[in-house]
Amino acid sequence: MRERVIKLLAGGPLEWAARDAYYRWVSFAPSAILGQNATRGRTYDRLTVRIAAHALAGGGGCIDVGANAGQILRKLLRISPGGPHWAFEPIPRYTDRLRSKFPGVTVSDAALSDHSGVADFHYYPGDPAYSSLLSRPQIVGGKQARTLRVDVRRLDDCIPENIPVRFIKIDVEGAEDAVLRGAMRTLSESRPVVVFECGPANLGNCLPVLEQAGLRLSLLAEYAAGVKLNSDEALQVGRERGELYYVASRP
Q1: Which of 33, 57, 126, 245 can bridge 220 by disulfide, Cβ–Cβ 3.0-4.6 Å?
Q2: Per-block mean pLDDT, blocks of 10 residues, the chain (251 long)
Q3: Number of separate domains in the chain
Q4: What share of the chain is helix, strand, coil (3-state, %, to 5)?
Q5: Which CATH number characterizes residue 84's domain?
């Protein structure tokens, strides 16, 4: 049903109002009436904002990679209004929306990776959260995709040197390791708190990049609760329970 409504409203005058209403409803709806995915996503959002508030307590820059319609970005701006802020979103109508709604944010329509160029981006109008540079038939099942030709850039080529970045959120549906490799300078210089979604199969590819940048892996819920794990423990526990949400931060 949700996919049908999204498809019906996509590109129309009611789309953004309907999306905003949906996210407000999810924010306050009892968990008992939400599906498992919606409940999990809501918890992820709340913990992400809590962690961002701590990381940005003294101000500083933040980056939203895979900003979608700006649900998290809006809250990051409230936490650190002075910025600077960057948002990356390759779906054109989302990019247009972000630029219109957040004029103080540097919004890019590029997809981030570990190289520069042009690539096919797999966009799912009925469920945009699954959109990715990667083709993942085992994940998306029978969902209908549109292929968008998009610019691909490295984060390090988009962020000026010597600007302290305190917080990064990454939600790129399987391309996390490539985004991190393309951000090595930014990660090594600023050593920000990085909140990212990652499946168990790709987590091992992310860990060496994070360690090279001087960051330690942890699970999102444990980190928010103050539980300290080393990177190997986080990797093992995350794989064992099929965890999707992680944090990287200074040891």
Answers
A1: 245
A2: 49 66 72 73 89 93 94 94 95 93 96 97 84 79 84 97 94 95 97 94 93 96 92 90 93 90
A3: 1
A4: 45, 20, 35
A5: 3.40.50.150
